Every structure is written in C-alpha cells, then in structure tokens.
Amino acid sequence: MSHLSLDLADGKGVLLGTYDTKFEPVISEFVRNFEEREEQGASLCFNVDGETVVDVWGGRKHPKQEADWQNDTLSIVHSLTKAAVSICVHILVAEGRLGLHEKVTRYWPEFGQNGKEDVTVEMMLNHTVGLSAARDRLPEGAFLDFDFMADVMAKEAPWWRPGTRHGYQMATYGWTAGELVRRASGMSLGEFFRDRLADPLDLDFYMGLPESEHHRVARMMRWTPNKAEPVTAFTLALLNDRKSLQSLAFMNNGKHKTDQPESYLAEYGAAGGLANARGAAGMFAPFANGGGDFVDRVTLERMQATSAAGEDVTLLCPTRFSLGFMLSMDNRHRETGALETIIMGKHAFGHAGAGGSVGFADTECRLGFGYTMNKMGAGILLNLRGQSLIDETYRCLGYTTDEPGYWIR
Prior knowledge:
Elements: E1 2-7, E2 14-19, H1 24-36, E3 41-48, E4 51-59, E5 75-76, H2 80-94, H3 121-125, H4 146-155, H5 173-185, H6 189-201, E6 205-206, H7 233-240, H8 245-251, H9 261-265, E7 274-275, H10 277-288, H11 297-304, E8 308-311, E9 318-321, E10 348-352, E11 358-362, E12 367-373, H12 384-396
Antiparallel strand pairs: 1-2, 2-4, 3-4, 3-12, 5-7, 6-7, 8-9, 10-11, 11-12
Helix pairs in contact: 1-12, 2-5, 7-8
C-alpha cells in the first residue's frame, strides 16, 4: 500500500491516507476535486473482495469550524441513509420477520386507512406507495419526532393508487420503511441498525449520533445556485407551485435543519445519517461479497434487481430503483441530465445523497464503495466530483465503457 500525503495550496488543508497503487488514477481524481472542482473536505474509501484498497481523506471542515478534515470526521450523508434503512428491512426479510408481499397492516395496523389498506412491504421499498409528501403543513420540529411522523404517514392519503406508479420518497422513506423496522424488530430504527449492522461491522455510520461524537461532524456547506446552470423540472415545479408534490416533498419539513445537535440525535432515516467514506464502504462490503451472515442469496438478488423504473412522479425524470436502493440511472441525454444521473455497474445497488455523497455495492466486481463530503453540489444525485471517482474506480477494475448507462468490461 502507498501513502498519500499532500499539502493543498491556499490553506485548503492536507490529503492523507493509503491506497493500492493499482488505483493511482482514482487518487489523482480525488486530488483534482480539491484543486479544480472546489472540494472543501471529503473522504473516499472502497474495498474489493472485502479488502480495503483505498482509504483517503482530507481538506477542511466548514469555514466556521476552522479545522482540518480528520481520518474520523463525519458528515451528513443525506439520502445515503436510505440504503442503511433498506439493509435493515432486508435483514428482517431474510429472517422471515417481514414478508415482501405481505400487507403492511400485518405489522402496522394503523397504516391501513385512506386508500392504503392493500399496500405491501414491497411498495414501501420501491417508492410506489404514493407517500412522497405530507399535505398538511408540519409543525416545527416534526422531523425530530419519529412517533409523530410515523403517525402522519399512517393517516396520509397516497398521491396515486399504490403500486401503479413510483415517486421518490425523499423525506418520508425513513418513516415508511423505518417504521416497518420498528414494528418487526421491537427496536428503534437507530438501535436496530447499530445492533445488527454497525456494531458487528464496526461501522462509523450512525442514525442517531451520540452527543459524545458530535465534535467529529463537519457541517455542510450548502449549494449556491448558479444562473448559468440548467434548472430541473423538479426544481421548477418546486418553485412555481407551493402546493405541488415537489414543493411539499422538499419544503414541508417542519423547518428541519440538518446541522444542529438535535438533528444529529434524531433517527431520521431518509436523510439524517452521519458517516464517513470508511463507514459507507464498510456497510456495503458484505453485500458486495455474497451477503455474509446478513442476507441469503435470494434476498441479495432482490436488493439489486430492478423493481421500479420510468418517469418518477416526484423527481419528474426517469429513475430506477430496486427494493430500497438506487440503481444506475443514465439521464445524460437530457438537458438537465448531469443533475439526474448516477452511473455505476450493471449489478451495483446503493444510494446517492443530496449534494454528492454516495455508497454502493457491486456484486460483479465485489466492490464496496463510499464517498462523503461537506460541500454540496447541485441536485439530489451525483455531481462531477463523485461521479469522476466512481468512473476511475471502474476503469482501474478493468471496465471499459459506460455507454449502455452502466459500466461494463
């Protein structure tokens, strides 16, 4: 293994870590993100065949924190948290404690109202349940109260007939899928994740971060709109109609602020997880290598098989999901495609987080990948910083083209 030690210019911090020389081009791209693409602070880690081959980090925390990014720095990973929730659900499915084709009411009786009586567990995972937003204005602090939001989801009427269309649950997924974890396990979402996944794998990944670890968090730097950049249909709908699904999905959040101590403590399963790249890559490692002791072969196949695809009712662009995970989505042909695309391998499944964080498993090349950062880019999927790291990783693994919409050898 080689060592990375590079002082960045203009007081931007230092880049550190170790890597297999086979992946030198990935390291060059990581450095380039800081030198040319305005990266602030970030970590990158991935494993192949269960062995860590790249583990690097560096840069700076939020300017107001006046500190370097350390090897154990954490940051909000937004919707990458959904992958952690989904893994929890699949563990329960593999154990027979949840059934994909069972009605949700078997586990959560209160959910069976306002047109949701026949909703199945599968619909909760693949974004076809129709609960992409709450219609009534949520009170301040609602996202910090799991019980309150689960009750909101139980009472809410779906935006379409469940199972007939799919629409991304950007904020609600943590209380739809997450409540299933609570009902089936008898534990809170964060407790189950910690007990069954994070602790056994020694993951630096949290849904509910103890106060003793708050000092490690790098606060997020929000994306600043650029008038020269194209605007997605989702953003236009959000801005032009306050009653639209898009506006309510994004804005009806009880004035939630991600970078507050009370938010770190909350088990916000849709977008509140805190991790670093080592934690994200480690979470996916078992699933890139057969499922380990967590899921059986059939469950692992379901985790990577397409379950919903086509025009997304929420995002207003084509998306592809398995049961709880993003799959490779190629919208590069669209005018705003750079903001609506994530290119991975054909057999990869994982999740991007708003602003650019990403984690996934690829069962073909046995890759567990994680990238986290604290300066957000545009959109809710990837940007050039994260995608460039993925692209170089696949090239180093012998893949030759992503022209089909996913990387192939």
